[in-house]
């Protein structure tokens, strides 16, 4: 099994490759062609479902919903021309900061 980084890189490459392709042939292409607001709405829905599963301690459901969240996040990032590298840089910039300090500088 590959790590999460490789998995996310492969997912983003697939999402990027769907740009401009036939929306009838690909769910990803249909989301991208519908625009950023549609992509954002789907991410929000999946995030709520993941949050509910987590709050209820539904482990399998949470893992599945977390995968949906990551997929829809990849689509929204791609729709905004942002890659995982920019997200990783934000996370790396916070390494070593306490959560309280980080909140103050965000
Ligand atoms: N990871 C995913 C993934 N996760 C979820 N989904 C789709 O997300 C949709 C969400 O389902 P919902 O029940 O929330 O919504 P729905 O009512 O079916 O659809 P909406 O009208 O609400 O958008 C389903 O159709 C799922 O198939 C995904 N579709 C694609 N991928 C990845 O994207 C790749 C390319 O997919 P295509 O673009 O479809 O070729 C796939 O190989 C996967 O790796």
UniProtKB/TrEMBL annotation:
Gene Ontology CC entries for this record: cytoplasm
Location(s), subcellular: Cytoplasm
GO-annotated biological processes: L-histidine biosynthetic process
InterPro entries named among the record's database cross-references: HisE (IPR008179), PRib-ATP_PPHydrolase-like (IPR021130)
Keywords: Amino-acid biosynthesis, ATP-binding, Cytoplasm, Histidine biosynthesis, Hydrolase, Nucleotide-binding
Keyword ATP-binding: yes
Annotated family: Belongs to the PRA-PH family.
Protein name in the entry: Phosphoribosyl-ATP pyrophosphatase
Gene responsible for this protein: hisE
